[in-house]
Specification:
Blueprint lengths: L12 H14 L3 H29 L4 H15 L12
Helix pairs in contact: 1-2
Length: 89
């Protein structure tokens, strides 16, 4: 069995309810959903950092390179269009 570390967190009630619903839809637990979501976020951030490092060394990605990368990501994900993330101000 995988090792786990128990933590106590506080969430706004509406957020906790939304997580309960999302976990139920995914067939997982509240904790499992949070862990999967956090791991996903960490992978995304690691990818962003890797791209930024590559661009520091190699120069900015061209529009063609960005389009190719997006096309590859869509193919890997099996989607026609990737959702654009909302940017926080």
């Amino acid at each position: 069995m995988a090792r786990r570390e128990k933590r106590s967190i506080s969430l706004p009630p509406q957020l906790a309810d939304a997580i309960d619903r999302a976990a139920a839809q995914d067939g997982t637990t509240f904790s499992g959903w949070l862990a999967d979501t956090a791991a996903h976020r960490l992978r995304l951030e690691a990818g962003r950092q890797a791209i930024a490092e590559w661009e520091r060394d190699q120069g900015p990605l061209t529009p063609d390179e960005l389009a190719e990368g997006l096309a590859r990501a869509r193919a890997l994900l099996g989607t026609g269009r990737a959702k654009r993330p909302k940017r926080s101000a």
